Amino acid sequence: MFALFLQKFTDLDILHYQKEFLSYLESKKWIQEPKNLYEPIDYILQLGGKRIRPVLTLMAADIFSNTYKSALPAALAVEVFHNFTLVHDDIMDDAPLRRGKATVHEKWDINTGILSGDAMLILAYQYFENYEPIVFQKLAKLFSKTALEVCDGQQLDVDFETRNDVTIEEYINMIRLKTSVLVAAALKMGAIVAETTEENANLIYDFGLNLGLAFQLQDDYLDTFGDPDTFGKQVGGDIIENKKTYLYLKALEVSEESEKQKLAYFYKQKLKDNSTKIIEVTRIFELCEIPDLVKDQISLYTNKAFDTLSKMNISEENKESLQSFGLWLMNRSV
Questions:
Q1: What is the DSSP string of 156-198?
Q2: What is the pTM of this model?
Q3: What was the pLDDT predicted at 334?
Q4: Which among 323, 299, 300 has a CA at the least distance from the CA of 310?
Q5: Does an H or E element contain 214, and which?
Q6: How many CB atoms are located within 10 Å of the residue 210 CB?
Q7: Full residue range of the structural domain in which residue 323 is found
Q8: Which residues touch 29 (CB under 8 Å, ≥6 apart)?
Q9: Is the pLDDT of residue 12 over 60?
Q10: The domain spanning residue 220 has which CATH number?
Q11: What would the pLDDT profile of 180-194 be if each residue is shown by its tens digit?
């Protein structure tokens, strides 16, 4: 019975929000002069993706005010900002693929990727101009805080690549900043647009913060163990880039000394052909039962998110919808 409810939820609610957001996105004319600045913006925004963050903004607005259309500009700001971070992240990671297609800097060049990304950050702010001064001020304040935290998280991520003493606690803090705060902010923006209570807005933020941690841990898992045909990114990318993800750090914690030495060796390498590296590191992860340990952590943070729902002043039906969305997110394969 619950499975049927979950299927109904994901098929109707999520797809409905996605459809409405995509219609709003497509109504915008991105390409203008100079075309070399705006064509990459149109390209990255049209690549697809899950659109999870703008969906969360619309969902939160709907839950707190029974309407979501007024939240469309805020949802677009979130999506444009998120894609700005992807453009710059791909440059920093030298990633060839994004959602199964060439990254912006591969299709154009690095300078174009940097400048187009900068323009996207500015465009994101402009969408808050659709709101009254009080709402605008709250959205802009939250957005500025979140944008800076994302930069903090990205720098920590870069720093970790050359450190050999990164702890799991430090990694969780890094992904909280780099990924979770934007998920949380997306939900809180919907609450702000709906003009709900400050308590509700803060609780939905906490819900999103923990859900964002679960989301990123799931992303880490899929990066190594996902299906390349559905994941949309290069499987094994984190291993190639020597990312100190939860998988790697947990493997160091639980593995035998010989496996620790192999991991340390591989994570010092930058190779032209990474096929052997990916195979060997994945084998060590499987030997250490890392897939199960990561899934345990995903469940932990998902349940922490659900704990905040009991404190929220919303209907039981809406609480069930948020919980169902969290479960759907936790079990995704893309």
A1: HHHHHTT-S---HHHHHHHHIIIIIHHHHHHHHHHHHHTT--H
A2: 0.88
A3: 59
A4: 323
A5: helix 198-225
A6: 23
A7: 2-330
A8: none
A9: no
A10: 1.10.600.10
A11: 999 999 999 999 999
Q: Which residue has the tokens 């209570």?
A: 197
The answer to whether 104 and 90 have CB atoms below 8 angstroms apart is: yes
* AA letter at 178: K
Gap between the Cα atoms of 307 and 167, Å rounded: 26
170-177 contacts, C-beta under 8 A, 24 or more apart: 171/244, 171/245, 171/246, 171/249, 172/213, 172/246, 175/212, 175/213, 175/216, 175/217, 176/209, 176/212, 176/213, 177/149, 177/150, 177/152, 177/153
Q: Are 327 and 306 in contact (CB under 8 A)?
A: no
Number of domains in the chain: 1
Q: Considering only CA atoms, which of 96, 72, 17, 83 is closest in space to residue 46?
A: 83
Cα separation, 75 vs 109, in Å, equals: 28
One-letter amino acid at 323 equals: Q
Q: Which two tokens stand for residue 239?
A: 């291993």
Residue at token pair 């971070």? 85
The predicted pLDDT at position 26 comes to 93
Whole-Å CA distances, 64 to 17, 76, 115, 204: 15, 19, 37, 10
Output the CA–CA distances (angstroms, integers) from residue 163 to 170, 178, 185, 253, 284, in the order listed.
12, 18, 30, 16, 21
In angstroms, the first-to-last Cα distance of the chain is 25
Find where tokens 């469309």 sit. 72
Residue type present at position 224: T
Tokens coding 86: 């992807």
The two three-digit tokens of residue 76, written as one number: 């677009």
Cα Rg of the chain, angstroms: 20
CB atoms within 10 A of CB 119: 16
pLDDT of residue 234: 66
Tell me the C-alpha distance between 53 and 50, whole Å. Answer: 8
On whether the CB atoms of residues 179 and 89 are closer than 8 A, the answer is: no
3-state secondary structure of 216: helix
Tens digit of pLDDT for each residue in 217-265?
999 999 999 877 666 566 788 998 888 999 999 999 999 999 999 999 9
Residue whose token pair is 């609480």? 319
